[in-house]
Amino acid sequence: MTYIENVFLCMASPLLIAALCMGKRQRKFFLFCFAGMGACLLSAYINTFFAALYRADTFAATTEIAPVVEEVMKLLPLLFYLLIFEPKAERIKNAAVITALSFATFENVCYLIQNGAGHFSFIFFRGIGTGAMHVICGAIVGGGLAYVWQRTWLKIAGTCGLLGAAITFHAIYNLLIAYGGAAQYIAYLLPVLILTAGKLIFRSSIQ
């Protein structure tokens, strides 16, 4: 059994100490780290609840339940941030990416504890692939929110659309992972290739 709440405490404790020692400007970074890891922790409980409620097998839970729950949970801290603090566009993007990275990091640590770290190549590809997937979903939501929340008539519809896009990409990734075989490694490489292509396009656009 993986006691994920204990893992959360062990990971959050040094971050909390660092947050207390750093200045106010850096504290937002740590707060979104806590938010991302907390969202992952709560997602595990909610995924288990809905999987039991609908008597879903592992495949259905991975491809149908997890993407919806996880993307909604990652969105909630961002909505709170937007509603209370009304940040600038760049800060929204950074908050979304930090939340997504923290979510992925906590998820990877729990996976290692549960499944072991004996197969380096598999763990390496999974760690990078899962991290890149969550970053892409975070970038979709964060970048989109920075745009749609500047336009009152787009806030609700735009947020729902961005959430739907993130869920769809997450579900496709999980579907390929659950299928196994070559498709699994394609899933690990796909987000990395998308991030690389996006970075190259961004660089060429500003030159």
Automatic annotation (TrEMBL):
Stored InterPro entries: PrsW
Zinc in keyword set: no
Superkingdom of this protein's organism: Bacteria
Coiled coil: none
Entry's transmembrane regions: 6-22, 29-53, 120-149, 156-179, 185-202
Keywords recorded for this protein, A-Z: Hydrolase, Membrane, Metalloprotease, Protease, Transmembrane, Transmembrane helix
A Pfam family that the UniProt record links to this protein: PrsW-protease
MF term (GO), any: metallopeptidase activity
Protein name in the entry: PrsW family intramembrane metalloprotease
Lineage summary: Bacteria, Bacillati, Bacillota, Clostridia, Lachnospirales
